[in-house]
Amino acid sequence: MMLPLIIEPADLHTELANPALRIVDLCNEQSYAQGHLPGAVSVTPQSIMANTPPAVGKLPDAAHLNALFERLGLTPDTHVVVYDDEGGGWAGRFIWLLDVIGHQNYSYLNGGLIAWKAEGLPLTTEVPHIAPVPHTLHLHPKPFTMSLDDIVSRLGDESLVIWDARSPAEFRGEKVFAQRGGHIPGATNCEWTQLMDQQRQLRIRSDAKAILANLGIVRGKDIITHCQTHHRSGFTYLVGKSLGFSIRAYDGSWSEWGNHPSTPIEQ
């Protein structure tokens, strides 16, 4: 099936009966229990992170991902649609995971659960029964991820744009959630929420491309995005993909960079 990367609620509603569809709900367990899209499977945000301090947001290991995607009944023909209820951070991170495992059939529900509810579309509390599909995944992180050492080796490279999706206060080192505060030298700050349309249920802003162009985040550059734990930058990764950017994630993010004893830092 061919669905766009960014799918609107009304368009997804017409596809709900399609057996090739697997809808993944990345809200918390309480939200899922209160009501979710028909057929949606719950995946908790914590289950898509390594959760190993200090860099808790790194890619989980292959065994963990095998178990996750086995539970979801993923096959090469499955078209995955992801959503959350906070603007797309967790959903975008899940799309990054799909990239890493080599699964290219996916869409993001624009505006997520908030937009779905605003259009009066159906919700259910029924939990679907899904037959597990055994997996032996082969992870391909390199095309979609940069490591700390990769970034250090390219500092000062004008073809690389480091997109920091944290708040301006974190970027300036005024708010610190690691041993050290500040930002990666040469990084550009565009907080993730700046690209959410507050008037349209947190959909991706229609002028996102222009906002980013004003900051030098454009096609033709090699873009790496991060935040504190690669949660907020899940959304910026998704936005970059939707605009056709060459974009990768730094999953170690500031929880790794800011806790490393010798990484260079600007404030």
Query: Average pLDDT value?
Result: 97
Distance between the termini: 47 Å
Structural class: alpha/beta
Work out the strand percent: 5-15%
Describe the protein in words:
The protein has 10 helices and 11 strands. By secondary structure, the chain is α/β, with parallel strands linked by helices. The chain has 2 domains: 6-118, Rhodanese-like domain (Oxidized Rhodanese, domain 1), CATH 3.40.250; 142-257, Rhodanese-like domain (Oxidized Rhodanese, domain 1, 3-Layer(aba) Sandwich). The chain has a 5-stranded parallel β-sheet. Strand 4, helix 4 and strand 5 form a beta-alpha-beta unit. The chain is globular.
Quick summary:
InterPro entries: Rhodanese-like_dom (IPR001763), Rhodanese-like_dom_sf (IPR036873), Thiosulfate_sulfurtransferase (IPR051126), Thiosulphate_STrfase_CS (IPR001307). This is Thiosulfate/3-mercaptopyruvate sulfurtransferase. This protein has 2 domains: 6-118, 3-Layer(aba) Sandwich (Oxidized Rhodanese, domain 1); 142-257, Oxidized Rhodanese, domain 1 (3-Layer(aba) Sandwich), CATH 3.40.250.
